[in-house]
Amino acid sequence: MPVIEYIDAIRLAMKEEMERDQDVFVMGEDVGLKGGVFGTTKGLQVQFGEQRALDAPLAESAIAGVAIGAAMAGMRPIAEMQYSDFMFPATNQIISEAAKIRYRSNNDWDCPIVIRAPIGGGVFGGLYHSQCPESVFFGTPGLKIVAPATAYDAKGLLKAAIRDPDPVIFFENKKCYRLISDEVPDEDYIVPIGKANVMREGSDITVIGYSMPLHFAMQAAEELSQEHGIEAHILDLRTIQPLDREGILEAAAKTGKVLIVHEDNKTGGIGGEVAAIIAEELLFDLDAPIRRLCGPDVPAMPINPPGEKHFLLNKEKLKTAMLELARY
Amino acid sequence: MKQAGSVQQSHRHTALGLTDERAVDMYKTMMLARRFDERGQLLQRAGKVNFHISGITQEPSQVAMGFAMDLKHDWFLPYYRDYGFVLSLGMTVKDLMLSVYAKGEDPNSAGRQMPGHFGSKRLRIVTGSSPVTTQVPHATGFALAAKMRNLPSVAIVTFGDGSSNQGDFHEGCNFAGVHQLPVIFVCENNQYAISMSIEKQTRGRICDRALGYGFPGIRVDGNDPLEVYRVVSEARERAVSGQGPTLIEIMTYRVTAHSTSDNDMAYRTKEEVDLHRGKDSLPVYKQYLVEAGLWSEEQETKLQADIRATIDEGNEYAEKAAFQPVEDAFRHVYAEQSGGDQ
Fold first, then answer.
1. Do A66 and B134 count as a contact with CB atoms less than 8 A apart?
2. Does the model's ipTM exceed the 0.90 cut?
3. Would you say residue B339 lies in a domain?
4. Residue spans of alpha helices (H) in chain B
5. For B139, which of A69, A109, A110 is closest by C-beta distance?
6. pLDDT tens, B224-257?
7. Taking CA atoms, what residue in A is nearest to B169?
8. Of A96, A300, B95, B112, which one is least surrounded by beta carbons within 10 A?
9. Is B179 domain-assigned?
């Protein structure tokens, strides 16, 4: 099976879906001739023409709003937000419109759009090219939200999102683009939305998370195994709305010790909801308090290297937190 | 009867390509919208329904707009005062009554949304919300889909003067201008955004904003429905022949309070309102039809009786109709067949 980069998985998912279905198209700032500021849409305009890899004026509410209109007209648009930090002007379109179109019309209308937005820091992007805004959209019924950590899941989840009859926000991690490569089959496949995935089997502690921090957890788990004989069970949520309750409870029950990790800040983050689900169902099966390791509650990370490093999660931070939990 | 040929040539509606029958139908629809709107207000005051929002005196231009469009191919994105518009697109008084009473059979939303939040896929009327102007980029999106699929469809979207200050207005117009999309942006400038007069909203003319997007902007007297029909027809022709968008500013006036929850005497005078009520084009258009030999007092009497019966019937039906069962109240958050249903 070929090993490909996370960014190529995203590009290939779009390319294959655009080949499969004439109604699929991508629009956003610089997605055409340039192929996107990161290169996610590279080659799509050459293959599919200007209309289907459409350069949109620099106005995020229109990128979302025009895509919503086209989706209601029967198209399958992929709206690209250049950075998730820039998607807030589109929030009204996403929350007041896309999320509510089916419900408010009693199923008369629907809105099958995908909104792709790069999240995450570690690229010296400073305050406004590094954020994780998942919690802004999380808790809005009518939206689905996915955030893959691997190339395999990125391709499979993006295909599932494009084929989904409802609006899906696809949070791709820009640090993963070229850092993460894994096996991706040539054949067509999807990763179902709403299903978490066990990345590593273990019996001592459970780590639950999504996106980039899971790779630090995987590295830390290997070291803890070799150095301390501690075996971590690692669950990738993959979809953060709707959460896979069953998958979360199963993973938590497996060890009775849970650490939740995400780069989005702690207060109001997805981790709070995951912890609440476990507390509601499994409190008396736990052997330790539920812990969270997240971005700090500051507006966003600084660009200066020590400040950025201090903000971000890494293998060492994960290892310390996992060891502490194992020893509880 | 006079001989048809030369006399009819001189009629404005004939010159615009409107048959006598269509010209009369326009009047009937305007009057239906007026009487429905009046009934909605009465029902709210009588405590029968919770809320009504009015478009009185805006109906003649709304109906003219609807009659200028192609109901088979075009897409319609109305705003909340557009009773005249949606009635001209095929929505019925019964449908509107079901919406006012928030009943389960309401085709707009099954009684989920406030009245005035129109939507019917069958009639190509696109579902709308309350945060104003979000529908403008949607119209651009419908037009983009039409262009991509090479369909002879035009999207027409309406909004108020207050809405023209929202970013979504500018973003939707600019996108459509860049891509030369078949869309008509219609500002129904009734000169008030709740309590704020037009002077408090903008210093310029709304139609002039089109210049900044590179397409025509036209101001038209909303009290002249035939002129509105002409302007919208020409905009449609431009759109469908690949010449891009048009912005139309219909000059009108809101003679009612913003809604049944508003007291407009707190911010304007009765004299001002009466002055504009006196410019109502509904009796003027009726007189036009009478002078053209197309309408008589007998027909008027019959029309009023017919409308009354239609509204009574719709009212009675809607009042007795069931609300959406509460067990269905939380359905359709996601598509049910996708497994996303919670």
1. no
2. yes
3. no
4. 4-9, 12-15, 20-45, 59-67, 83-88, 93-100, 135-148, 167-178, 209-213, 225-240, 270-277, 281-291, 297-320
5. A69
6. 999 999 999 999 999 999 999 999 999 999 999 9
7. A62
8. A96
9. yes
C-beta neighbour count of B228 within 10 angstroms: 26
Q: Cα–Cα distance between B246 and A125 in angstroms, integer?
A: 41
Q: Which of B114, B144, B326 to mutate to test the interface with A (most CBs of A within 10 A)?
A: B144
Query: Can you give the pLDDT at residue B4?
Result: 47
Number of separate domains in chain B: 1
Could B168 and A66 be called an inter-chain contact, meaning their C-beta atoms sit closer than 8 Å? no
Q: Which domain holds residue B190?
A: 10-258+268-320
Q: Give contacts of B147 with chain A, Cβ < 8 Å.
A: 51
H or E, element range at A267: none
| Residue in B12, B219, B267, B277 annotated catalytic | B267
Which residue ranges does chain A devote to CATH 3.40.50.970?
3-183
Residue-wise pLDDT for A111-156, tens only, equals 999 999 999 999 999 999 999 999 999 999 999 999 999 999 999 9
**Domain harbouring B122, CATH code:** 3.40.50.970
State which fold the A3-183 domain adopts.
Answer: Rossmann fold (3.40.50)
Cis peptide upstream of residue A242 (ω within 30 degrees of 0): yes
Rounded to two decimals, the pTM is: 0.96
- Residue contact A59–B338, C-beta within 8 A: no
Verify whether residue A129 is a known catalytic residue.
yes
In a domain, B333, yes or no: no
Kindly indicate whether the domain formed by A197-326 is annotated with CATH number 3.40.50.920: yes
